[in-house]
Amino acid sequence: MTNARSAPKARLSATSPSGIEIPIVATAAMASGDGTMPGEAPFTRGIFEDGYRGKLWTIRQYSGFGTAEDTNQRYKFLIDGGQTGLSVALDLPTQCGYDPTDPMAGPEVGKVGVSLSTLAEAEILFRGIDVGAISTSFTINGTAAIIYAMYCAIADKQGVARAKLTGTIQNDILKEYVARGTWIFPVRPSMRLIADTILFSNEETPRFNPISIAGAHVRDAGATAVEEMGYTLANGLAYVDELLRRGGDASKFARRLSFFFYVHMDFFEEVCKFRAGRRLWAKLLEERFGITDPNARRFRFGVVCGGSSLTAAQPYNNVVRVGTETMAAVMAGAQSIFTCAYDEAFQIPTEFSAELALRTQQIIAFESGIARTVDPLGGSHFVEWLTDRMESEIRAVIEEIDAYGGVIPAIEDGILQMRIAKRAHERKQDVDDGSTVIVGQNYFRRDNQTDDFGEVFQVDPQAAQKVRVKFEAVLAQRDDAAVQRSLAALETAAAGEDENLMPRLIECCHAYATVGEMVQALKRCWGEFQEPMRL
Amino acid sequence: MSLRGKRILIAKPGLDGHDVGAKVIALALRDAGADVIYTGLRKTPDFIARVAVDEDVDAVGLSLLSGSHEELVRQTVDCLRARHASDIKLFVGGTIPDADHAALRALGVDGIFTAQMELKDVIAIIAGELG
Q1: How far apart are CA A336 and CA B62, in angstroms?
Q2: Interchain contact, A432 vs B44, CB within 8 Å
């Protein structure tokens, strides 16, 4: 470490990380507040009257690694520890549409998530877990429609009515182009595929969230809190546009749109980001689309503690960061929370660190008392002032994108990508020059300090090989004619414009077609996204 | 520290899509005067080696976050060697545990960078290696 500032010279900045000048004291005159109550549009104070008393947030810890057997065991450990929902981490080949034996999959099989190449693996993943009784969230985008089809097929296999399924697929491709990089197809066919999942879900799995419009990754890539919310609402508006163009019923689909964000360390900015987002989404749906039904304007969101806010330096400091961020998420009224383990930014959590992260949520839920009251910070002059201020700044971000013609051209031209890269560069410079304080990293660091994660988690080094052996066995046992038939039907439907692809994908899953085969069939029709290179 | 006149390829091998670090380094290298080429996502080691030779670069920087660094670095080194381009300096950045540094250096990596390092130090090391 070359820039340790061991002397306590750190100073409090007068501006928030989003660049908002913060007053030393906020007064009643500065705080308008909108005077609404929880459960009342535009939902500044929360989407339900009784807050968490009616329903606690869903506690779900992101996890998945190695083989389906390994991950099934970790799920049972977490459920046994009081987790109330599953959050499935998938490996990069599954996310990008490559089978485990594809040369592109290379060394990535089972590395940062579980490999889910065919229905056979999903059957193992959910062995002994009733999908009608637990809510499951999948962090999946490029292949979201396929993984959702697989989940429907699992319900069929377990004899669970699809209508009982609850959970979420992330399914937000727009932010993948901008920030996280697991895109496959060009923007426009991707939008069609997403509309298909939502329209199908409205009919077949009405309690399931077919999309979770995610600012989290944009934030991690460098966006500020204001930009995170602004870009995400802009993406949400693009999906609403697409659904209306497809003839969807807004009062039906808008209720099933959900959102997903990071919560970072600036406590009040984070709380007010969510209050402002909830209010602004309700207003935008009415202003732009004339959607007046309050139920359709509820802004439901899940939260994860910020990966990029955690440090490799002095990793146990992350326990405090995760606790603080979780408090902000609860004060803001999140519908689901997953807490990072202190070692999570650098390795797959051990059972020890995963359990500590789970307990962090449970202590805040059941011991701290902060969940008893809805929006406990509401009415504070400062919180109301900052909420108003953030709302207007978020609106300005959306209007800037409007001026560009919307998010789709901005992504196709690489404008958003470039802007976020520049922001990340600025943030790095702020950390380097010491204007941003990171305790234990650029300040308050002793000379020769070593960083100790404690136990290091190791994915079974044989996992990738085990996955490939099982995969070959599935290929050898399945009915090839049925596979080819289902893939041909998928391709024909994709080549046309009107047919909803979900029933075709579910047929493919039932026939044990592979994720790679389904993606290939779609690529033949649609091609691949050509990444714009702008720096 | 100036990198004026130096050509550097920043590349993302494998399937990892997190390219913010790669872009931040690309911007910092450009500020330091280098001619920077960025491959974009999901490139094979063979493709990266081909571009490095075609563009006649002085250095290649690989950005790796998914834990597959050893395998992908080994393949990239092999592909550069196959094209008689082992003189091109090779740098690696991202999530690379300390325990893996020795193995990467043994493969021929000239510098390993983490997100915690200051940009000016990264630039200084690269400039030092490129002489």
Answers
A1: 36
A2: no
Report d(CA A123, CA A72) in Å as an integer.
10
Give yes or no for B82 touching A (CB within 8 A). no
- Cα nearest neighbour of A426 on chain B: B24
**Long-range own/partner contacts, residues A527-533 (CB < 8 A, 24 or more apart):** A527/A185, A527/A186, A528/A184, A528/A185, A528/A186, A529/A177, A529/A183, A529/A184, A529/A185, A529/A186, A529/A187, A529/A190, A530/A186, A531/A414, A531/B40, A531/B41, A532/A412, A532/A413, A532/A414, A532/A417, A533/A414, A533/B38, A533/B40
Per residue in A381-397, pLDDT (tens digit) is 999 999 999 999 999 99
Question: B28 near B119, Cβ under 8 Å?
Answer: yes
Are B15 and A104 within 8 A, CB to CB?
Answer: yes
Cβ–Cβ gap B17/A181 under 8 Å: yes
Please name the residues in contact with A400: beta carbons below 8 A apart, sequence gap of 6 or more. none
Of the candidate ranges A117-121, A135-139, A448-452, the one whose mean pLDDT is the lowest? A448-452
Strand-pair category, A208-209 with A167-169: parallel
Integer Cα distance of A11 and A437 in angstroms: 8
Cis peptide before A100 (omega within 30 of 0): no
The C-alpha of B94 sits at a distance from chain A's nearest C-alpha, in angstroms, of: 10
Give chain B positions within 8 Å (CB) of A430: none
B14/A contact by beta carbon, under 8 A:
yes
Classify burial at A490, counting beta carbons within 10 Å of its beta carbon; exposed 0-12, middle 13-18, buried 19 or more: buried
A531 chain-B contacts, CB cut-off 8 A: 40-41
pLDDT in tens, B4-61: 999 999 999 999 998 989 999 999 999 999 999 999 999 999 999 999 999 999 999 9
Q: Is A158 exposed, middle or buried (0-12, 13-18, 19+ CB in 10 A)?
A: middle
**ipTM, 2 dp:** 0.91
Out of B28, B66, B119, closest to residue A112 by CB: B66
CB contact under 8 A, A220 and B20: yes
Q: Which among B24, B71, B121 has CB closest to A428? A: B24
Give the predicted TM-score (pTM) of the model: 0.93
Q: Looking at the complex, does the CB of residue B87 fall below 8 Å from at least one CB of chain A? A: no
Residue of A nearest to B94 (CA): A346
- Bridge partners, residue B64, by sequence: B94
Vertex A17, ends A13 and A22: CA angle to 5°? Answer: 55
| pLDDT tens per residue, range A311-354 | 988 999 999 999 999 999 999 999 999 999 998 877 788 889 98
Q: Do A3 and B97 touch (CB under 8 A)?
A: no
Q: Flag if A535 and B26 touch (Cβ within 8 Å).
A: yes
**pLDDT in the model for residue A8:** 56
Q: Are B104 and B70 in contact (CB under 8 A)?
A: yes
pLDDT digits (tens, 9 = 90+) for A265-306: 999 999 999 999 999 999 999 999 999 999 999 999 999 988
